[in-house]
Amino acid sequence: MKILLFFFLTFMIGLAHAQSFDYARMAPHPRLLLKKGETEEIRKNLEAYEPMLRVHRYILDACDQFMIAPTVERKLEGKRLLGVSRAALKRIFYLAYAYRMTGDKRYSQRAEQEMLAASAFTDWNPSHFLDVGEMTMALALGYDWLFDVLQPSSKETIRKAIIEKGFMPSKDEQYNWFLKADHNWNQVCNAGMVYGALALYETDTALATEMLERCMQTIGLSMKAYDPDGAYPEGYNYWGYGTGFQVMLNAGLESALGTDKGLSQLPGFLNSARFMEYMTGPTGASFNFSDAREKGQADAMMYWFAKKTNDPSLLWVEQSYLKKQTLDFAEDRLLPCMIIFGAGIKPGGIAPPQSKFWVGHGKTPVALARTNWREGEGLYLGAKGGSASTNHAHMDAGSFVFEAAGVRWAMDLGMQEYYSLEKENVDIWNKSQTGQRWEVFRYNNFAHNTLTVNGKLHRVEGFAPIVKTFTGDDKLGAVIDLTEIFKDDLKGSSREIAIIKEKYLQVKDEIETTNQPARIRWTLVTAATPKFLNANTIELSAGGKRALLVIESPKRVELKTWPAQSQHAYDAPNPGISLVGFETELKANQKSTLTVKLVPQP
């Protein structure tokens, strides 16, 4: 850890004492991601790999729909313009790609119209600066990729918009708190400003240089999230968002200036692609802890990681998405990157990962096990520690998901869409111990596959590390120390979660009480139908398949079901979901073991 910290500090100190780049090496337009002459390699790759040609056609079909739709309009959803900014980025990126690949000026002309429409907005909503970051990137990409075909008057209008609605608000202290953020806001907003700077470098050299140097002084804060192993603290969907824009930033610097000055080599960053690969189970569902959705999606940035590390096995899961009847992409506005970064990757060389287990530490420790890499086969476990204080976190330390026989038996409800709560004036961004965020059903520990002690919420500031791992075929899993999560209610608590002999899941809680007794609630969230068979066994059934939830110890427990929703009208419904488990009373000054097995039935 000390070596990693030294590397990071050396990197940041080096940037502080010199200009980061040799700006004389700035490439001519187009310089962002795909330079002049590089489209030919793309075309050859499309001819050689049918699934990627399908993505290309998907983009062209989308462009044809953009051509008959109204241009983007400045319409807020609550406090956000983000949906509009994302629509603009998708349209401009796709249309500019379509023009460069086909030479059809209808695409470039429509992209120009979209850029002028966005340029005419009164502002890009700097109070929610993600909106500005994505819109700036949108116009920068269009300006750079279509530099030779834009009308001179349009080019000047777009240039002024990037400066006045992008750069200038980013220098205003009431808006630029993202420069001090250690999460995805830093990555997205800095990436947008960098793209604007690279696009306008010739005409606005001093301002562009300022934006670039400022980024290099501040982006390291968010890069620390990957240290030490690559486990991204904000979960599956936000890996796609934060890391996606980080890759855009790194790749943009490399294409325009020949280097990202070591950003890609910072501790854990390249390894985070392996984290992402193991975050999907055989059913295709993700380990959707924190603010994430369950559905797995193809991610364009995995192709960048595969090429950067020369490791095609990172695409084992990705290639399956491109063979599905319906294509579905994460951060789909960045989709042309899949074709750009995927050029030259030979499909026949994609082999499955060699290991069945992956563990990451850092802010949100995770243990991920998959016994078989064929789609729909094998057992899968995703288990986590961490803290509810992390960005976008839930009270889910000690929680897990589990799959077997093509069924997700233990699930995570995932996120509730923000606007559905914000429009009801729910303060979901107050993460204090008494903050309203924890009243939202899907966010607290009562609705996760973890323990609840004495009916209380988990401690927000508590941290649960992974303290031991099991990597053999007889046992795949980890031990998570939950002591800080239950401080004041328990003297000690650790949870071992593991796949045993590649046949079933075992969850073993070692608990030591204080000088007061403790009531323990053990919860499992499932879409299966539960049936109590006896005092210690619950049968789960789903899709004609069965699994048994067997409480081996203690022998005296009270089997329970709980409602899968609260009394709050603002909580999203959870149809078809059951919360099952048990409660038990532990005496004061006592050490106890709670052992539960989840056993798929033949």
Secondary-structure map with pairings?
Layout (H helix, E strand, L loop, with lengths): L1 H15 L22 H10 L1 H18 L14 H21 L2 H15 L10 H16 L6 H19 L13 H16 L5 H14 L1 H4 L12 H22 L14 H7 L22 H9 L6 H6 L14 H7 L14 E4 L5 E5 L9 E5 L15 E5 L2 E4 L7 H5 L28 E3 L12 E7 L2 E7 L8 E11 L3 E10 L4 E9 L2 E6 L2 E6 L2 E9 L4 E5 L15 E9 L4 E10 L2
Concise account of the structure shown:
The chain has helices spanning 2-16, 39-48, 50-67, 82-102, 105-119, 130-145, 152-170, 184-199, 205-218, 220-223, 236-257, 272-278, 301-309, 316-321, 336-342, 418-422, and strands at residues 357-360, 366-370, 380-384, 400-404, 407-410, 451-453, 466-472, 475-481, 490-500, 504-513, 518-526, 529-534, 537-542, 545-553, 558-562, 578-586, 591-600. It has 602 residues and is of the alpha+beta class. Helix 2 (39-48) crosses helix 3 (50-67), helix 4 (82-102) packs antiparallel against helix 5 (105-119) and helix 5 (105-119) crosses helix 7 (152-170).
Net shape? globular
Q: How much β-strand is present in the residues?
A: 15-25%
- What is the name of the CATH topology of the largest domain? Beta-galactosidase, Chain A, domain 5
Structural class: alpha+beta
Largest sheet: 8 strands, antiparallel
Summed up, the domain count is: 3
CATH class designation of the largest domain: Mainly Beta
Average pLDDT rating:
96
Our count of helices gives 16
Count the strands?
Answer: 17
Signal peptide: 1-18
GO cellular component, one term: cell envelope
Domain Heparinase II/III-like C-terminal: 382-557
Main location: other
